[in-house]
Known about the structure:
Layout: E1 3-8, H1 17-32, E2 40-44, E3 59-65, H2 71-89, E4 96-102
Parallel strand pairs: 1-2, 3-4
Antiparallel strand pairs: 1-3
Helix pairs in contact: 1-2
InterPro entries: Macrophage_inhib_fac, Tautomerase/MIF_sf
GO cellular component, one term: extracellular space
Protein name: Macrophage migration inhibitory factor
Amino acid sequence: MPCLNISTNVSLDGVDTSSILSEATSTVAQLIGKPEAYVMIVLKGSVPMSFGGTEQPAAYGELVSIGGLNPDTNKKLSASISSILEKKLSVPKSRFFLKFYDTKASCLIF
C-alpha cells in the first residue's frame, strides 16, 4: 500500500482538501502502477516549517511503497505532486522536498 504523507506550513482552512487528496491519489496510483484502492494520502497543514531559512510556503513529503519506485518514477512523482501543491496551495515547486522509501512487505506490520 503506497502511503504519501505531506506536511506544509500553509493553512488548509478554506482549502478544498478533497481535490488535493483525490488528485494525489490518482497520480500516485498511476505512476507506481498500484490500484487507487490501496493508496493512502495524509495531508497536514499549518505545520511550523522553515525551508532555506524562511517560513514562506513550503512542503515536505514522504512516500512509502512496496515496490513500484525507481529513479524515473520518483522524478515523475516529485514533479506531479509538486505541481498539485503549487496549483492548489501556492507552494512553489522549488520549496517542496519529497523523500522516497521503497520497502519490502516483510518490513510492514498490519
